[in-house]
Each structure stands twice: as structure tokens, then as C-alpha cells.
Amino acid sequence: MSKILVAHSPDADDIFMYYALYFGWINNKNIKFENIALDIESLNKGALQSKYLVSAISFGMYPFIKNNYALLNTAMSFGNGYGPKLIKKKGKVLKNNFKVALSGELTTNAMIFKIKYKNVRIVYKNFLEIESAVLSDEVDAGVLIHESILNFDESLEVEANLWDIWLELAKDELPLPLGGMAISRSIPILRAIEIQRLLGKAVEVAVNNKKILSKMLKNLVRVNEEELETYLNMYANKDSINLSLLQIKALDKLFEIGFNAKIYKDLINIRDFLIPIEYESLRFS
Questions:
Q1: DSSP characters for the chain?
Q2: Are residues 181 and 279 in the same domain?
Q3: % of the chain residues with pLDDT over 90
Q4: What's the CATH number where 23 sits?
Q5: Average pLDDT score over residue span 58-65
Q6: Looking at the whole model, is its pTM more than 0.85?
Q7: How many domains would you assign to the chain?
Q8: pLDDT by residue (tens digit) across 97-118?
Q9: Residue range(s) defining the domain that contains residue 117
Q10: Is 157 found in the same domain as 194?
């Protein structure tokens, strides 16, 4: 039995999608999964260094690691009518060069934000510190992600929703690609297919047993039961089980936007960077 370390973020949807494996709900005799939870920017930087064999990443940084990682077709989070929020103190008027806190230089939300707001002064912080940075006037505004979008201080208000900015940039009503799972190309392809299948099954089992698993996770997440249900319905749902054609179109649009903004050197088609699951049937035919 081989050991595979899965690196994911500590937000509720990542924990939810992984923990069916942790609790032994998935029948598996060949691979022992272990996990580590880190903030998304640490995961992104770790992927740049090929630190983890399987890691959650921001979709926006994938083109920078495409030669070392393939994308899994499961355990992803998209926004659909919602997403990260730019918040500020109520009544505050933001100048053209306002100071803003973002959750990381390599995050999808940072990429979209910087294309829209070209003159701002950016500082990067752990996502858990952004609200307090706005409240203390260390920054003029901040982009909230993960569960923070559901419940923030009543003295704050939403200046802009990144969902609206995404629609403006995409010029099409596509789901907003936020985060997914990447797998190292050092893993043999048949083993990579098996890992993808097991992780996909874990997401499916979690989604189909949401109430049971949510109760088991209540001491591991930062939100109450009601907020957890809302959050999981947003980011860990049936659309997280298998990458759809619409989601593929959205990813291609994200990479096209980044290429046109000169963030990426190459324009990539996401289909070229998914695990070729057809190899398994061809190999043994």
C-alpha cells in the first residue's frame, strides 16, 4: 500500500470533500491517504515548488504549474451567482489608488481583482486576517473568501462582488472558477487515475451524505451549522463531483482572460491538462 499526502485548505468545502476518505467511507486497498491543511496561498506556493503530490490550488495559478501538475476532474469549487467579496467600512469612499488586502498573490480572486483594479495598492494577508485589517484601518478594503463571505462585521459593507467582475470580463454567464485539485506528473498515470477515482468517489459520497458528514465536521470548521449548510451548498455540491463541459468552458475563459492580460505566457486549453482516463481502457484492451 502506498501513501499519498493530500494538501487542502482548512475551509469547510475542502474538509468536507476530503473527509469521506479520512473516515474510511471509501473502499480502498491500494492507497493510504493522509492530509495536511494549509491556507490557499501556502498551497499555491507549495505547488510552485512541487512540494505536494496532490494539492488544492487556485485555478488562476494553474498555468504556472502546468508542466509539473495535471488537473483532477473532481473536488473543485466554482461560484455560480456568488464568490469572493470586496468589503470596506460602511460609507467609506474608495479612492482610485485605495489600499486593499488580498488573500494571496496567486489566487484566482487576486488575478480577477488586479485586472479590474489596476491602480490599487495591494498587501497580501492570510485570509483570516483580512476583515480585521479593514476594521483597524490598516487597509481601505479587503477581498473576503471562503466562509468569511457569509458573516462579517456589521460595520462593513460590500463594495463589489467578484462574481459581477467575472461576468464583465468573461462576457458570458459562466460559473466562476475558484479552486481545484492538482496532481503531480511524477505519479504513474494508472496510479493518478486511481487517485482521481477515489477522490471523486469521496466527493460524491460526501455530497450524498451531507447531513451526516456535516454533523461529524462541526468541530473542525469555523461556521455554525446553518452557515455550514449554506456554504456547502455553494461550494461543495453535485457540481463538485465531476468537471462539466460548462466548467471546462469557464476554465478556458479564465485562462484566455489571463493570457490577454499578459498574466500567462501561453494560452492553454484545459482539456490538454486533465488526466487522460481513457489510457486505462486502452492499456488493458
A1: -EEEEEEE-SSHHHHHHHHHHHTT-S--SSEEEEEEE--HHHHHHHHHTT--SEEEEEGGGGGGTTTTEEEPSSS-EEESS---EEEEETTPPPPTT-EEEES-TTSHHHHHHHHH-SS-EEEE--GGGHHHHHHTTSSSEEEE-GGGGT---TTEEEEEEHHHHHHHHHTS---EEEEEEEEETTS-HHHHHHHHHHHHHHHHHHHHTHHHHHHHHTTTSSS-HHHHHHHHHHHSSGGGTS--HHHHHHHHHHHHHHHHTTS-SS---GGGGB--THHHHHHT-
A2: yes
A3: 72
A4: 3.40.190.10
A5: 97
A6: yes
A7: 2
A8: 999 999 999 999 999 999 999 9
A9: 85-170
A10: no
